[in-house]
Amino acid sequence: MIEALVLVTVLAGFLGLLLRRNLFLKVLALDVMSTGVIGFFVLLAARSGVRTPILEASTGAASSPAADFADPVPQAVILTAIVIGFSVQALLLVVITHLARREPSLQIDALEEAAEG
After folding, report:
1. Sequence-separated contacts (24+) of 30-34 with Cβ below 8 Å
2. How far apart are CA 20 and CA 11, in angstroms?
3. Which residues pair with 51 in a beta bridge?
4. Which of 10, 29, 46, 50 is geometrically suited to a Cys-Cys bond with 70, CB 3.0 to 4.6 A?
5. What pTM value is reported for the model?
6. Tens of pLDDT along 67-90?
7. What domains does the chain contain, in order, with CATH numbers?
8. 3-state SS string for the chain
9. Is residue 93 a contact partner of residue 82, using CB atoms and an 8 Å limit?
10. Rounded-to-integer distance, Cα 13 and Cα 69, Å
11. Which residues of the chain have pLDDT under 50?
């Protein structure tokens, strides 16, 4: 059930990118779609019964050699995707703020007409 909700989130963001003509709403839809994709990857990587790969302080060895340890690399990749997505969103909002000084409505049609004329 939760997989379907995450897929709906991704599709809602994608439809927002296609159908909206306002630049701010397009950035918002891009953020919704990015959140859905990250949620989907987290959902795929989630497993129960795994332990964190942390060494014990006293012996310097893993707490249980037979334990199934979680792989930290996918977590690092998802964290990197979150940071990059936040940076791209911040940059897009700065560009939209500068465009809003020229065309306050932020409609794509009005911006295209202003660029031509």
Report:
1. 30/89, 30/92, 31/85, 31/89, 33/9, 34/81, 34/85, 34/89
2. 14
3. 69
4. 50
5. 0.76
6. 677 778 888 899 999 999 999 999
7. 2-47+71-116 (1.10.287.3510)
8. CHHHHHHHHHHHHHHHHHHCCEHHHHHHHHHHHHHHHHHHHHHHHCCCCCECCCECCCCCCECCCCCCECCHHHHHHHHHHHHHHHHHHHHHHHHHHHHHHHCCCCEHHHHHHHHHC
9. no
10. 35
11. none
Looking up tokens 């990118």 gives 17
pLDDT of residue 65: 55
pLDDT for the residue 42? 86
Sorted by sequence, the CB contacts under 8 Å of residue 46 that are 6+ apart come out as none
Q: Which two tokens stand for residue 12?
A: 């809602």
